[in-house]
Input
Amino acid sequence: MSAVTGLSWSGDSLEGLGWGSRVWVLADGTWCPGTLASTGRDSATLEVFLEGAGKSRSFPARDVAPANPVDQESSDDLTTLPFVTEPGLLRCLQSRFDHDAVYTTAGPVLVAVNPFKPVPLYDVEAHRKAATPGTPHVYTVAQHAFSQMKETGNSQSILITGESGAGKTETTKFAMQYLAVLAGGSGMERRVLDSNPLLEAFGNASTLHNANSSRFGKLTTIHFDDRHAIAGATIQTYLLEKSRVVSHTVGERSFHAFYQLCAGAGPEERAALGLPDAAACRFAYLSGGESTPPALGPSDAAGFAQVKAAMEALGVPAPPVLRLLAAVLWLGDVAFCDDGQGAAGVVGGPRSPALRHACRLLGVAPEALAAALTTRELAAGGERVSRRLSPAAAAEGRDALAKALYARLFDWLVRQVNVALVAAGAPRASIAVLDIYGFEAFATNSFEQLCINYANERLHQQFNAHLFKLEQAVYRDEGIDWTDVEFVDNQDCVDLLEARPPAGVGVLSLLDEECLFPQGNDTTFGEKLRKEAGWHPRFSFDARAPGTDFCIHHSSGSVVYSCAAMLDKNRDTLSQDPLLVLTDSSEPLVAELASGLRAREGERRAAAGTVGARFRDQLRGLVAGLDATQLHFIRCLKPNAAQRADAFDPRAVLHQLRCCGVLEVVRLARAGFPARHAHADFAAAYAHLLGPALGSERASTQRAHPGTPPPGALDTCLDLVRAFDIPAADFRAGRTRLFFRAGVLARLQDRADRVLRATVLIQSWARMARQRRAFLRHVRAATLLQAAWRSATARRLVRQLRARRARSAILVQAAFRGHAARAALRAQRAAALRIQAAWAAHQAEKERAADVAAASCLILTGEVSFGARRTESLPCAEPSLPSADLHAQLQEALAGRREAETDAQLLRAELEQLQQSLTGTGGLSPAWAGDRGRGGFKAAPHPDAALAAARASGRSGGTQPGLSTSLDDVSFMSVSEGGEGASPDSQFTPSPPHPGRPEAASPPTAQRMLASLARDFRRKATLFDDDVAFIMEVHSGASDAPGMDPDAELAALQQRYRVWKTAFKGKLAAAERALRSGKKARRGFKPFGR
Output
């Protein structure tokens, strides 16, 4: 059924469009984008080039709609679209949905598209944006309702409606969470939020359309105190679908609580409740006609923990609730059989495991409950007659008992929650949030779907009344011209469902009437319904099809209902026999619920009430209560039937847009005057914008005409309108109120805000000028003080700097003069030493020459005495010694000279070998980093070995074989350990001077220096070898040295070795100089004047 007969109205027609204009065309039931190519032969046909098809086609003008500009087709408010058409609305919603913008406003209504996935729209930034009017968000609706309650003191209501699976339950939770944030602080808001998981577990189930479908209606009224903090809350429920306890469609599930109990109960709880493991929970009530029950998932176990936490927070005792829940499951496994005479009996008898578990949990005897389920006591002639039931009747009685117990348990939980949420004092106002089941249409629809869809029709009618009828009535009452916007009024569908005589006979009335007849059944009800309502345009049936099915054409679509079991569900009768047994239960909760069921049955029979009648009265009370509050609407849309994320089905969304009246809402908002103010309120709010000129003019007019009455509020309003040049088409002046189109008041408010800002700015500037002058005076005074202080400080620092520089200059000069004097002294000393050495050498040469001359004379004299006259005459001194002694002295002098030259050669060899030893000394490197041979450290040849080899070479006139090889193999470690090299005890003994050698020719100084250097070399080699050996032991773990780092100690040892080596090189250089000076001295000793 089409909800709207026309697609365009004034402003949304094709007038003015031409070739190349973007349009939408209805092709094969789907709106497709296209470009207007040309008009047909008549104005009823248009040629449109379809995008993607690559060709043009002719379409009727009624199937073509103008398209919005690309940059404006994703507006966050549907009323601001240039062209408000069905395809334009679809395109806007889909474009925003693709970018996870699931909220869009449509005038006073918020449209929410279920994304079927988490979206980042509920963080702190969303809280901040919610305070900005016009932002499309559920938080904005809650913020607006809370602000209206604070300003007016009137109660508010938020109606969240839509199809099953459109996201109503989640939207309700978001709204309540934000209200708790706005009014938080009392602690009650946490309890209000804790009630959601508890009631969802016992009242929601998984259906083919929704994984968390509400199977009951819930109105949560949050009460606020004088400080606008949450004082308490009240929860009212409507029509729990208790038939889902015992049966449900294939592919669906029963209530969440059963699965959560089976999946999340602990070992102790399972033992107490008789529950098997989660994988073995195959209860009949959970299977729903399937061979195996639906698999239990992690979400069920997590949900069970949340339910227990909510019970604890709300003060609801969990053990009795869980026992009753498990008892219902075990009760469903009690089976009945035929005893051969058509009477029912419990399979397994009183010892049946299912019966025993159920009776233990219910606190009754198995025999008593088995008898109550298989027999029925009737009153006949004042006597009680017991009648055996058939197995089918016994199964029906068992299911009726299970449904009744679960329904009463649900009502008991709601009462307990209300007790926990009771307000401490008298509340000032309230905000009600309605979350009720949406429109449903399944393959098989029964009494529950009839009631649910009836509730949706009634609420849709209330929506129409509020947004359409009341709006139009306000304009008519104010005497304002108004062109009615056509919309679908579902009053005829509501009448078909709930009408009572004499106004008419509705479906529910006929159902109640048929339940009064003892012989009434589903067939008679169907026949009567076809007869009484067959003429109604909203009612139809297939006369050719067998059975009693009928069809009702709802605003949201046509639904075929089955009359099967409708009378039994409407009667909702329950045998008193099992209730009598349960009344005597040892479980207090079971006894309390059974007593309540008996009392309700008595009242129902006395008043002849039915489920449909009670629900109809409840629904009327709900609508009346909502009408007494200020309403806020949220329309939830389901983007696709498969519940997939990021999937947008245009046909499904368009059907919901038509049914929920969003198109009419947008049209009404654009065509009407949504902004309105009472004359007095408007004048009081904006009169200050007129300025003093207009006020003085009016005063002069009254003085000139004393009889002129003072201006009224309406005159002030009209003056404001004229002062701001508001066109007549943008406002209407009613009898009591002033009406403006959307956006007009924004200009007035902007002017008022600017005037207020200007006034505040002038005042602030005046105060600022005074404070600034005083501040500048203080700044100038502080600046002077600071400048004086900085000047004194700078001068003091300059004086100190000059004094430090003078002292530094004196110190530098003194150091330089001292250095120059020491350098001059060293030069003079060196010169004196050279002069003294030259003089001593000269004197020694002179003395040696004299001695040689004397010796020559003696030799010559001796030779003459022995007759060896070799010369005629020799200049010589007087002979004082015999010739034999003189010859011996000369031979001894020649031998001493040769030995002195040999010793000098040895000393020079020793020095060269010592220098080579020092030069060849290797660096110290760890054995763990290199060669791991003997000792682990390569070193130069030991000085003793070098000196011994030098002596042998000097005395033998050659080089000792293998000396270089032995020297290369010597290491510090080997010396200290007594290896093949020279012993550490070997002493270096220089050659003593020959007795007959001239004193100047012997090198005692060089010998002493070389001996000292050799001893120092041996001592240092031993020390270095010992240190290295100890470090290697620590590194290998052979020795323990706490706090010692082998690598760091080795680095320090290498540094000490390099310092010693540098100093030792200097000592060797000094020894070399001493040898050179001795060589020069020996050159002057020339026997016989050679």
Remarks:
- The two ends are 150 Å apart (CA to CA).
- The longest strand covers residues 30-39.
